[in-house]
Design brief:
alpha+beta, PH-domain like, 5-stranded antiparallel sheet, 3-stranded antiparallel sheet, 4 helices, 30% helix
Length: 150
């Protein structure tokens, strides 16, 4: 995906979720261990070209269906991304919103954990159908999936 910045052209980066699905990471980065955004620090995920950074680019520069912004941290910093397809953007938006809901809603998280413990062979049910489809297509961004060892 392309990461947009203030006044310069975008940077091509490989974005993925860490093994615990608790952080978005990217590479290459000179920051190494600091190149991450914690899922629980995400305040909002917005579709399209709504952020201030996107407004600096001319209309038609990017397909709005491929654009999204992640607002995170106490100061609502934004990570503005352009994916290679609308499907990839939709997958990230849906997946991040799902993870945000799971982390911020402790009752829901506890309920899911109890269900997972009760029905261990169905651990993959909790991921959106889109994410399982992405795994089958071997799209080049890493998302870790829960699998049963039975």
């Amino acid at each position: 995906m392309i990461k947009l910045r203030g006044g310069s052209k975008g940077l091509v980066r490989f974005y993925y979720l860490d093994d615990h699905r608790s952080c978005i990471r990217w590479r290459p980065s000179r920051k190494n261990e600091k190149a991450k955004i914690s899922i629980d620090s995400i305040q909002e995920v917005c579709e399209g070209k709504q952020s201030e950074i996107f407004q600096r680019y001319a209309d038609g520069s990017f397909d709005p269906n491929c654009c999204f912004s992640i607002y995170y941290g106490d100061h609502m910093e934004s990570l503005d991304l352009v994916s290679s397809s609308a499907e990839e953007a939709r997958t990230w938006i849906t997946g991040l919103k799902y993870l945000m809901a799971g982390i911020s809603d402790e009752d829901s998280l506890s309920k899911r954990q109890r269900t997972r413990d009760q029905y261990p062979s169905c651990a993959a049910w909790e991921l959106p159908q889109q994410w399982r489809a992405v795994d089958k297509l071997r799209i080049p961004y890493r998302i870790c999936f829960a699998t049963s060892k039975h």
